[in-house]
Amino acid sequence: MDTDVPDPWSTTTAELYRTLRARLDDDDPAALATIVDVEGSAYRRQGAKMIVVPGDDSYGSITAGCLEGPVVDLANAVLDEGRARVETFDLMDGDEWGLGLGCNGVIDILLEPLDDSFGVALEALANHEPATVLTAVESSDPDVAVGDRTVLGPDRSPLGDSDRNRLPTELLSNASDVTASLRESASAKTVRLETSAGSASVFVDHLEPVPELLLFGNQNDVHPVARLGRDVGFRVAVASSRGSRSDESDFPDAHRVVSTHPTEIDDAVRTPENTYAVLMSHNFLDDRLALETLLEETSVPYVGLMGPRKRFEEMRTEFEQEDVQFSNSQLERVSTPVGLDLGSDEPIQIALSIVSEALAVRNDRSGGRLKAREGPIHERVKTP
């Protein structure tokens, strides 16, 4: 498979979306495997996806690698048959599938030919808008078949034309509360819904646009942050002060490079709620102006500020002298010194600290050690 990542198994969601779009645009066949239900523990949760192309190539991961072989075989069968199916893998049975896994979960995987029924969701994401994909994965209603699908846009109305039958209006109405709940938590879950002619299990998969990491600066330490940010799945934007390095070739790991003034950095923010900013120009005035602009003119949830606490206190003093006041909620968005406490001063490890903190904030986590966390590693999705 043509790919620009050295290990297709390690692909990010952003790369997976891009590959799906490219295959649809080029009319290249592919199967999409998606985890739609998990009982017990599993390496990945509902919504995890993997692309399979004719033959043995796959792109992305839905397990630690133990099921990829059987899933690829089943996906090729789905491509031959031309219709969707759901397969259950009982990993608690060490003899199941002849793999001797002895894991602690049961996983349901939806395997389907890639078509425009998913393409309409990809279009919404490309336009920086969320989409909710509802797919029937089991049904006793004669009017609903496995694979029937409706994609909802931000206003919860159906999007675009589809290559498949849409779900009945009755089913969508019955799923409205669940859909709203999963939109709120940006989650995925299979729910059982009653219809006038039976019942159907519907996989509700809420998809958010790829988050963007906005780096304000043009010094050498931008490079490792940009590279790691891209590696973990952010779209990376570098905002460089006017008159400084601002050519795309100067920052090869960035998806886009813009030249701006710190008081206009808000213009570089495409979707505020989906942007995580790091101010690292090493220029006190530029960082102070950029910080003021982001806090006053945008709702970005995270503004990492490079430098020691004393530097930030000096900025706050100047803000007070200029009668610039911030609310507690605005100040809570500021993280300085930026990054998680990893105890290192090497540039690449500082970058890892910064990107890890941005990712933790994105996932609504503190970034602490998992051994200190009570309960499951992955949140269990609750719906009405």
Automatic annotation (TrEMBL):
<dbReference type="InterPro" id="IPR027051">
    <property type="entry name" value="XdhC_Rossmann_dom"/>
</dbReference>
<protein>
    <submittedName>
        <fullName>XdhC/CoxI family protein</fullName>
    </submittedName>
</protein>
<dbReference type="Pfam" id="PF13478">
    <property type="entry name" value="XdhC_C"/>
</dbReference>
<dbReference type="InterPro" id="IPR052698">
    <property type="entry name" value="MoCofactor_Util/Proc"/>
</dbReference>
<feature type="region of interest" description="Disordered">
    <location>
        <begin position="148"/>
        <end position="167"/>
    </location>
</feature>
<feature type="domain" description="XdhC- CoxI">
    <location>
        <begin position="25"/>
        <end position="90"/>
    </location>
</feature>
<dbReference type="Pfam" id="PF02625">
    <property type="entry name" value="XdhC_CoxI"/>
</dbReference>
<feature type="domain" description="XdhC Rossmann">
    <location>
        <begin position="213"/>
        <end position="357"/>
    </location>
</feature>
<dbReference type="InterPro" id="IPR003777">
    <property type="entry name" value="XdhC_CoxI"/>
</dbReference>
